C-alpha cells in the first residue's frame, strides 16, 4: 500500500503533537497537514489528497462532525475527542473509529488498522484508481485511472451504477470506477441520451433492449427500475 496521506485537525497544540508522535511510529502513515481549526483543514483538503483525517469534535467556529458533513467526498475519519456523547453521530457519519482522550498508542493503532483495512479493500475493489472529477465535454468524460487520463465516451456507456460515494461506468468494452455521485452525473449527462431509472442506476436510453417485469435488459445485464419511476421510464425508453 502507498503511504496513507494523513491530516490532523485539533485546536489543542498538545493533542496535535501527540498524534504526530504516534503517527511517526507507523511507517505507512504520512502527515500531510496539521490544522488547529476546521477552516484551515478545509484549505488543506482543497489543496491536496488526504486519505485519512484525525478529527477533534469540539472546536471553535465549526465542529469536527459539522466539518465532515460539509465535505462532498470526505476522506476516512477517526474522531479524537474527550467526549463520549457524540459517538452515535460519529458512526452515523461513517467514521472509522472514535478515540476517547486520553488514548494509548495501542488504542490509536487499533483505529489505524481499521482505516488500513478499509483503504486496502477500497484499493482492491477500485483496482487502485486515481481520480479526477469527471469533466463535461460534448461527448465524453475524462477520468484519471492509475496515472492515465481515460476518455469515457457517452456513446460507449451502457449504464452507470451508484456505489455509495463511487460510481461505476459500465461501457461496451471497459469498466471504470470513479469517485462521484449519480446526482451530479445526472445533471451533466445529456438527458436525451441518459435516464435515471433507479436510485442506483442511470441507463443509456438507446442501449436498453427489452423490459422484463421491473428489469431493463441491456445485453447480459439486468437493471432494476424504481417502482415510483416505472411509468416514466417505460414511456421515455419505449414510446418516445
Could you give a short description of this structure?
The chain is α/β, with parallel strands linked by helices.
Largest sheet: 5 strands, parallel
Please write the CATH class name of the largest domain. Alpha Beta
Total beta strand runs: 15
CATH H-level homologous superfamily name of the largest domain: Response regulator
Distance between the termini: 50 Å
Secondary structure category: alpha/beta
- Rg over CA atoms: 21 Å
Mean pLDDT: 82
> What name is given to the CATH topology of the largest domain?
Rossmann fold
* CATH architectural group of the largest domain: 3-Layer(aba) Sandwich
Shape: elongated
Give the strand line-up of the largest sheet.
2-1-3-4-5
What ranges have pLDDT less than 50 throughout 5 or more consecutive residues?
A: 124-133
What is the overall number of helices? 7
The arrangement of helices and strands along the chain is EHEHEHEHEHEEEEEHEEEEEH
- Name the beta content range: 25-35%
Helix content: 25-40%
Textual characterization of the structure:
By secondary structure, this protein is of the alpha/beta class. It has two domains: 4-126, Response regulator (Rossmann fold), CATH 3.40.50.2300; 140-238, Beta Barrel (OB fold (Dihydrolipoamide Acetyltransferase, E2P)). 30% of the residues lie in helices and 32% in strands. It is built from seven helices and 15 strands. The chain has helices at 13-23, 38-47, 64-70, 87-92, 105-126, 182-188, 230-238, and strands at 4-9, 29-35, 52-55, 76-81, 97-100, 140-145, 148-153, 157-163, 166-171, 175-179, 194-198, 201-204, 210-212, 215-218, 221-224. Strands 2-1-3-4-5 form a five-stranded parallel sheet, sandwiched between helices. The chain has a five-stranded antiparallel sheet with strand order 10-9-8-12-11, covered by helices on one side. Helix 1 links the parallel strand 1 and strand 2 (29-35). The longest helix is centred in the middle third of the chain and has 22 residues, at 105-126. It is elongated and about 65 Å long. The model is unreliable at 124-133 (pLDDT under 50).
Amino acid at each position: 500500500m502507498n503511504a496513507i496521506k494523513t491530516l490532523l485537525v485539533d485546536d489543542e497544540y498538545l493533542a496535535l503533537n501527540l498524534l504526530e508522535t504516534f503517527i511517526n511510529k507507523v511507517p505507512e502513515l504520512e502527515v500531510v497537514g496539521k490544522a488547529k481549526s476546521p477552516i484551515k483543514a478545509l484549505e488543506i483538503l482543497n489543496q491536496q489528497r488526504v486519505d485519512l483525517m484525525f478529527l477533534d469534535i469540539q472546536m471553535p467556529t465549526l465542529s469536527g462532525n459539522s466539518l465532515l458533513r460539509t465535505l462532498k467526498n470526505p476522506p476516512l475519519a477517526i474522531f479524537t475527542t474527550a467526549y463520549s456523547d457524540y459517538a452515535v453521530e460519529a458512526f452515523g457519519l461513517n467514521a472509522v473509529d472514535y478515540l476517547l482522550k486520553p488514548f494509548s498508542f495501542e488504542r490509536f493503532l487499533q483505529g489505524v488498522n481499521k482505516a488500513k483495512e478499509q483503504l486496502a479493500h477500497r484499493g482492491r475493489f477500485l483496482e487502485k484508481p486515481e481520480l479526477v472529477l469527471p469533466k463535461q465535454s460534448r461527448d465524453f468524460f475524462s477520468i484519471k485511472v492509475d496515472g492515465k487520463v481515460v476518455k469515457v465516451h457517452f456513446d460507449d456507456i451502457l449504464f452507470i451504477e451508484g456505489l455509495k460515494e463511487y460510481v461505476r461506468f459500465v461501457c461496451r468494452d471497459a469498466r471504470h470506477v470513479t469517485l462521484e455521485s449519480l446526482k451530479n452525473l445526472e445533471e451533466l449527462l445529456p438527458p436525451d441520451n441518459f435516464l435515471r431509472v433507479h436510485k442506483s442506476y442511470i441507463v443509456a436510453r438507446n442501449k436498453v433492449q427489452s423490459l422484463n417485469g421491473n428489469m431493463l435488459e441491456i445485453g447480459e445485464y439486468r437493471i432494476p427500475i424504481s417502482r415510483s419511476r416505472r411509468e416514466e421510464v417505460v414511456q421515455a425508453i419505449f414510446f418516445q
